[in-house]
Design a protein that fits this description.
single chain; mainly beta; 2 helices
């Protein structure tokens, strides 16, 4: 009887549980479709050329290989504002009642090329990116909407592109080493934050 009751409780808990969803913000938990499917496990196991993005020694090539792909990333971003605290009227508040970001879907590319020089030496290049959590909270002055921070449409835009020439060498059956210098191009933009000028060391930049 106790076993049946316990089994019923476990089943009820499993059926009544909710799924949890989260992201790492701008930063990927893994690079390449295979590693994303394994929750980012790309350091200790090599599934494809994109393994070199997290572990240069994982670059393993059979002849010449080329990989290209992109991820469609569609996060939900919004905020809600509760009633303004009447006891602190001098505080800086977000415009109520809240907004949902207009930017809804992002294409994040990936590219890799590898060449097998000989049985021990592999060379290649891996190109990958971070981004996709950009926000754009629109303001509509025609209805008296002055924006999230009372300075028009607000939001941030961060893009990062990584280019990694890679070399891997098989020292022995059990040991492999790799080297991969990383060149990074980054762009950042923020808008609608002019209300923070009084708090900034460079107000003219806002």
């Amino acid at each position: 009887m106790k076993k049946q009751l316990l089994s019923s409780l476990v089943l009820a808990g499993a059926l009544g549980s909710m799924s949890a969803n989260a992201t790492n913000g701008y930063f990927n938990h893994g690079f390449g479709i295979s590693h994303k499917g394994m929750a980012g496990a790309g350091v200790a196991i090599s599934e494809d050329l994109m393994s070199a993005a997290t572990n240069p020694a994982a670059l393993t090539v059979n002849g010449n290989e080329l990989l290209f792909g992109f991820e469609l990333f569609s996060p939900d971003r919004e905020y809600q504002v509760s009633d303004v605290d009447v006891y602190y009227p001098q505080a800086f508040y977000l415009q109520s009642p809240g907004k949902t970001s207009e930017s809804s879907i992002f294409a994040i590319p990936e590219f890799a090329y590898g060449h097998q020089v000989n049985d021990r030496l592999n060379v290649g290049v891996v190109v990958y990116a971070n981004g996709g959590m950009n926000t754009e909270y629109q303001a509509d002055s025609s209805v008296g909407d002055s924006g999230t921070f009372y300075a028009g449409t607000a939001g941030v835009d961060l893009k990062q592109l990584f280019i990694s020439p890679t070399l891997s060498y098989q020292l022995s059956e059990q040991t492999k080493v790799g080297v991969s210098p990383i060149f990074v191009v980054q762009q950042f933009e923020a808008q609608g934050v002019g209300s923070f000028a009084d708090f900034s060391a460079a107000p003219e930049q806002l």
